[in-house]
Structures are given as structure tokens and as C-alpha cells.
């Protein structure tokens, strides 16, 4: 074990029948930690998510400050602290037309869908936020909407 056997890059291996180390995943498998999202990035998918998608958060998660914390990191610069669409980037006219949550008919499903895929000038945040974190943000957005 002091010196391990060295192998040449891209050389054949006897570990698998086809001689390749890098194998394709078995049919029907999904990545560890991946949660399938069955709504497409279309207007119809948005409408379905808006009508049918419900938050899996429990009452403890809904009452936590984590949603606010995530909102302040990822959303506040455009949407503003109150969710009125008057964030710093809007004030500096870097982005125009960011809506106030008060003007929108939104549900937790529609907010989750938009955070997942993005909409109009807003990009997707699926790479920055886990599924659980996106639900926390959606919950906090609805809380802001109720205060406007």
C-alpha cells in the first residue's frame, strides 16, 4: 500500500466487461439528492403549478427566519425589502418593470415555479437554492404580499 499501482489515463480496465471505468447510470435512476419537478417551463406549466403545487413545509419551517434570510440574499436587490419591486437595482434603473407582489395574483406554487425556472428578466435560482430553500423563499414572499 505504500505505492499504489498506477494506471494510464483512458486505458482499458478489467473491472467491467466492456473494459471502461466510466459507466452510464442504470436506466431509471436519478442523482442522489435530486427531486424530480414535474412542471414544465411553459405558460401552461406555470398555470398548473400555480393551481396545484402545494408547499411541503411544516409549521416549524414556515415560522423560521431562513426564508427571510434567503430572500435578503437573492431577491431583495430587485424586489425590495417589502416586496414592492423597488430594490436597489430598480432604483438605479439597472432593471425596470419589477412587479410588486401586491399587484400579482400569486400562490406558493407559482412563486416556487418562478424561482425554479425564472420568468421574463428574472433568471432561475435553481442552482443557487435547494428545493427546500426555494419553498422557504416562496413562503416568505407570500408573507410579504400579505403585508403590502
TrEMBL record:
<keyword id="KW-0408">Iron</keyword>
<protein>
    <recommendedName>
        <fullName>Cytochrome c domain-containing protein</fullName>
    </recommendedName>
</protein>
<keyword id="KW-0349">Heme</keyword>
<dbReference type="InterPro" id="IPR009056">
    <property type="entry name" value="Cyt_c-like_dom"/>
</dbReference>
<dbReference type="GO" id="GO:0009055">
    <property type="term" value="F:electron transfer activity"/>
</dbReference>
<dbReference type="InterPro" id="IPR036909">
    <property type="entry name" value="Cyt_c-like_dom_sf"/>
</dbReference>
<dbReference type="GO" id="GO:0046872">
    <property type="term" value="F:metal ion binding"/>
</dbReference>
<dbReference type="GO" id="GO:0020037">
    <property type="term" value="F:heme binding"/>
</dbReference>
<keyword id="KW-0479">Metal-binding</keyword>
<dbReference type="Pfam" id="PF13442">
    <property type="entry name" value="Cytochrome_CBB3"/>
</dbReference>
<feature type="domain" description="Cytochrome c">
    <location>
        <begin position="62"/>
        <end position="145"/>
    </location>
</feature>
